[in-house]
Amino acid sequence: ADMRAYPSDEPMNRTPSGASLDTTRYSSLHPSEEAALLHISSDGEWGFFQTQALRGWVRLDKAALAGGGSMPMASGGFLVVTGSSVSVYSAPAFKRPIAELPMGTVVRLKARDFVKGAWVVLFPFRSSSGGLVWKDAYISAKAQVRRGFLPYTKRNIIVQSFKMLGEEYGWGGRDGLRDCSMFVKDVFATFGVRLPRNSGAQSLAGIVKADAGRVQGEDMLGAVMGAEAGLTLLSLDGHIMIYLGKSRGVPFAINQIAGYRGRRGYMRLNRAAVVGLNAGAGAPTGALLKRIKAVTEVLPPAYGAAEL
User: Fold this and answer.
1) Distance between alpha carbon 214 and the CA centroid of its chain, in Å?
2) Out of 83, 149, 183, 196, which residue is the most buried by the measure of CB atoms under 10 Å away?
3) What are the E-state strand segments in 41-164?
4) What is the pTM (predicted TM-score) of this model?
């Protein structure tokens, strides 16, 4: 479901031809994501919700209202989605998925053991009256999921980010796709690190090693070149990347990117890609490396607080 700035599906695009860049689409919400309903629109069709990361308007027919009910008991702990996404099924025959869960999603296990080659999870459904109903659902034992969060290491962070390499870019979570900040958020969620939803807030979510308000030029370049691969976020105006380290002296990052301005004009990528930070050299806006506004090291999770 889309989370939007206003209780309306009417888009507000940056340009007449930029239908894929709807500035009133904040994000996309996926099954099992919890939110608090704060207000209902006068026509009764939209709710103003607060999630862990942001707040905005969501169509009420996309939500299952809990009514203050408690979470049912789940004795098996929890699973974390470690693949780019995994399918959830209503039966262990795995014929038709009822939902696709993105990387970093946490679901509760009903039991610790497989049943017919499947994990049995407690999954939220919407009743005919709009209420929340918990039912058994199934995830293949072969799916990329893990009982508990991944160990927080540089290698694991980079491996997780490369699982989405080449996937299509989607501003604001369009059609269930990822933009730059959702890409970063989903990667770190697999370790129990809950980052904010937008790139500006993510650039402050950790130890800020350098920012444009304090350092520029050679000092900023030094902060990038000395950064820890995997653990470090590089922020530009309205964009964020995961630093990968250097190859032959050139720094690289992985990100979900619409494109960048190069010497021959706008270079459209529209996918998760590895880019050299010298990209854009010769363009009026300059290379990506010269446009970095902050270098931020993401702190490891407090597992005691993160466990369910």
Assistant:
1) 29
2) 183
3) 46-50, 55-59, 78-81, 85-89, 97-102, 106-109, 118-126, 132-140, 145-147
4) 0.92
